[in-house]
Each structure stands twice: as structure tokens, then as C-alpha cells.
């Protein structure tokens, strides 16, 4: 898939599920969130930290057999109640949208202190 195909697919989707290793602030969950998907992740790597993937813990799971029913229920909740559930990701989208401005302000604050 090329970049445009991925973007189109994310815009059509309602739920993005990622139980990968999350070595840092991952691009795909961010792209999915900004594209209008509910995000469900595991708790590996950076995903366990709110600062890296700022979503409610109710959408983050340890990926083990004991949690399969909870994960499936979360997926169903997002699909069946999308209009309500997507509101729970607005803060994440706002953080992404305002990230460049925040970075620039942080830089100015750092250099004011020096």
C-alpha cells in the first residue's frame, strides 16, 4: 500500500487496533486518530504511557488470552456506538493538531531560561 491508500483506508475505518511493540511515539496510531478512528492498543513499549498515546486506559489492554473478551467487547463498543465513542479521542486529536505550536512554545521557553 502507498501513503494515499493508507490514508484513504484510515478515513473509511472506525477502529484502529495495534498490539505491536510501540518503540516510541508511533505514527500509525496518530494517523488513525487524526483520520477519525477509535484507537485500541496493547500496553507494550510507549503505548502504556499516556504521554505517548493519550487515550483512556479503557482502550489499552495487555494482549493475553485472559483479555480477549474485553478486547472484543471494546471493538464492538467502538463499532456499534461510534458516534459516542469517537468523542473520547478528541483530546488525542487536539494534541496532534496543536503539537507543532506546542513544540515551538516549548523551544521559546527553553531558550528564555538559558
Please, could you describe this protein's structure?
The longest helix is centred in the last third of the chain and has 15 residues, at 99-113. The relative contact order is 0.14. By secondary structure, this protein is mainly α. The protein has one domain (3-113). Strands 1-2 form a two-stranded parallel ribbon. α2 links the parallel β1 (15-18) and β2 (38-41). It has helices spanning 3-12, 27-34, 68-80, 82-85, 90-97, 99-113; strands spanning 15-18, 38-41. Helices cover 51% and strands 7% of the residues. It has 6 helices and 2 strands. This is Glycosyl transferases group 1.
Provide tags for this entry.
51% helix, two-stranded parallel sheet, globular, 6 helices
Q: Order of strands in the sheet with the most strands?
A: 1-2
Portion of residues in beta strands equals 5-15%
- Mean pLDDT equals 92
Q: Provide the low-confidence segments as ranges.
A: none
Count up the helices: 6
Give the overall shape, derived from the CA principal axes.
Answer: globular
Total count of domains: 1
SSE order: HEHEHHHH
Structural class: mainly alpha
Q: Measured on Cα atoms, how large is the radius of gyration?
A: 16 Å
Distance between the termini: 46 Å
Amino acid at each position: 500500500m502507498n501513503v494515499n491508500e493508507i490514508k484513504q483506508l484510515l478515513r473509511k475505518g472506525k477502529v484502529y487496533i495495534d498490539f505491536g511493540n510501540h518503540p516510541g511515539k508511533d505514527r500509525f496510531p496518530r494517523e488513525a486518530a487524526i483520520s477519525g478512528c477509535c484507537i485500541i492498543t496493547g500496553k507494550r513499549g510507549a503505548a502504556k504511557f499516556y504521554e505517548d498515546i493519550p487515550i483512556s486506559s479503557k482502550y489499552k489492554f495487555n494482549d493475553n488470552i485472559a483479555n480477549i473478551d474485553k478486547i472484543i467487547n471494546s471493538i464492538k463498543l467502538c463499532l456499534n456506538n461510534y458516534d459516542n465513542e469517537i468523542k473520547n479521542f478528541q483530546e488525542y486529536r487536539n494534541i496532534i493538531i496543536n503539537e507543532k505550536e506546542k513544540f515551538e512554545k516549548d523551544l521559546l521557553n527553553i531558550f528564555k531560561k538559558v
